[in-house]
Amino acid sequence: MLRRLLDYQLSLTEKGKIFHKIRPLIEATDTFLYEAPINTKRSPHIRDAVDIKRWMLLVVLALVPCIFMAIWNTGLQNFVYTSGDYKLMDEYLAGANTLQGYFDFAFKENRYLSILKEGFIALIPVVIIAYAVGGLCEALFAIVRGHEIGEGFLVTGILYALILPPTIPYWMVAVGVAAGVILGKEVFGGSGMNIVNPALACRAFLFFTFPGKMSGDVWVGTNPTQVRESLLKMNQEAHTNALDGYSQATHLARFNINQDIKRIHVDAIATNNLGSHVNTYPAIEKHFNHWNETGHHQATLTQMEPEQLKQFVTAPLAEGGLGLAPSNYEDAYHFASLNYGLGHNGDWNFFLGDKLGCMGETSVLACLIGALFLIWTGVGSWRTMAGMALGAFLTALLFQTGAHFFGSDGGAWNPAVLGFPAYKHLLLGGLAFGIVFMATDPVSSPAMKLSRWIYGALAGVVTIVIRDINPAYPEGVMLAILMANVFAPLIDYYVVHYYRKRSMRRARA
Fold this sequence. Notes:
- The chain is built from 25 helices and no strands.
- The chain is mainly alpha-helical.
């Protein structure tokens, strides 16, 4: 019955019929529900059940864990941060230190129902708008050009929604997807012709056009004003200070500190929790003894009161202190917690996805599940994924090693960001999501095997260079992948020349 209905609709769009101009819309519905009606007339024939539509659906299936985590984590953060109840916040922060405590908090008194509800409210409207507006743009271009609607937007629409903050206004969602699809895809000829990842093009347009809505305090809930008022109320009732107050700063925002904050400052702050198990302890001890004797503070290193610790870190070098500007102490304090995994900064929190960020990129675990599915089905290039992961890790490791071996006092006076543990870069921000779902876009990435290694490594290296050196932009994944997209044809060009020369040498031999 459905087949007959679709055939009748297609008959109304034949050449000369009244609905001929909108034939791409009818064909899109037919192709979405059934296999594309293509009959091969002559050889060679390639018979394969996996067409472009099914290829795109496999990517969507790989995104299911990220979609679930987008709903769950967005709803959980919204449930806690908009409550205005500091006791609930304390219960969440204390419970989240262990996996068991995390789930005990979420399932206590059926809280998971409210969490899922709020997550749906945050994500689903964004997805609907992205598909509706982006699909309309693609349909209009298909009608004007007289060709079929590409299935690529099945993936672009959901990817775009997952890399947005939950507080993004709906009209910006529509503007961003329209601009990204038109400028990043359709002007180059449509599906299969774009030179950059369309979803990243949409996000880049929003990031540079409306930066206030794509960075800062935009990562919790759906109403930024409500979240700010809730946090203000909680901090007032709990009588917190600048160091232990509740905030919605992301881990990347806390990573992005002033270059004047050195490793020795961060390590000195961490000694109260870790004792002598910090990287620059000998240098800290030398300065501390001088400061303690000169000022008669009668303090004990690793057991200082909060005010004593601040005085030591911010005292002038001539007095034995560490010379940090008082205005930078709060950032150094939070970076120390991030660097050493103190409090709500454990590696498992980052890996599972218990953190603030774009809705679908927070969970490394969900990204890994998607990566395994893409590799198993042959849809995603494992070479690109491995190349980008290795490029990012080795670059971060180079910075970390250099920060330890170069400079005075064992690198103690090098910028703290350079000594950040290399593996943690893979857990922060959207790097895992970018590696698995963005860099592997088959259209904007290279085709040759060696090219994919080089392309992935380039994106990984640039990501860490931006994170560690650029003080204005803590997340380098989007820009790194877009830059690698632009160089992808050039990389393929030189790799093909390399293969040809190698073949010629072998033939001569």
